[in-house]
Design a protein that fits this description.
The structure holds 2 protein chains of 2 kinds. The longest helix of chain A is centred in the middle third of the chain and has 36 residues. The radius of gyration of chain A is 20 Å and the shape is rod-shaped. Chain A has 1 helix and no strands. By secondary structure, chain B is of the alpha/beta class. Chain B has a 4-stranded parallel sheet. Classes of the chains: A mainly alpha, B alpha/beta. The interface between A and B is medium-sized, with 19 and 19 residues.
Chain lengths: 46, 155
Amino acid sequence: MKTHVRILFAVAALALAVGWFGLRRGNAALAARLSESTAPATRGAP
Amino acid sequence: MKARAEPVVWAAVLAVLSALVAVEGRRRAELERQIPVAPQELYRTLAHSRTNWQIVDVRADVAEGYEDSHIPGAVPLPGCDLARAPEAARDRIYPSVPTVIVSANGDAADAHRCIARFTAARRLAGGMAAWVAAKLPEDSGEYAPPSVKAGGGCL
C-alpha cells in the first residue's frame, strides 16, 4: 500500500475520531442541560 | 501487516468510526428534540441564522390563538392535525425542515406528540405565552403564504 494512500486513510480516521469525540462532548453537555431543566426545583428550598 | 490485509483493516477502522459518529449524531438529534428552545434564543436564531427554521403553531383554536397573535412566519397546524390546518398552510409544512413547535403554554406532552412528525423539531419553552411575555415581535391575522416579492417575512 502506498504511503500517500495510507496517509489519506489516517487523515480520514483522525477526522472521524475528532468528530466522534466532539459529538460525545456535545451530547454530554446537552444531557446535563436536559437533566438540569427537568430536575425538580428543590434546590434552595427551605 | 500483509499488503492485502492493510486496506481491509483501514476500511474496518473507518467503518467503525463512521458507525460511532452516526450513533452519536442520532443521539444528538434525540437530545435536541427534548430540550426546549427559549423565546429569546429562537428570536436570535431567526434574526441571525441562515438556517431555514420552520415555526409550527399547534394551538388548537386558530381564531383565538393563531389569528389573534402568532410568531411572524409561523404556520398554523391546529392540534398537530393536517386536516384542520388552513388550506394555504397544508403544503407549507415540511417534515424534514428544522422545526420549532409553538403551543399555548409550552406543554411538553402536547409538543412531543407533534415533534414525532418532524425529522428535527424542538418545542418553544413556555409556548406563545412566553413569547408574548418576552415582548418579542408578533403578527396577527389569517395565515398567508410568504410572498415571492422581496421584503416579506422578516422579524
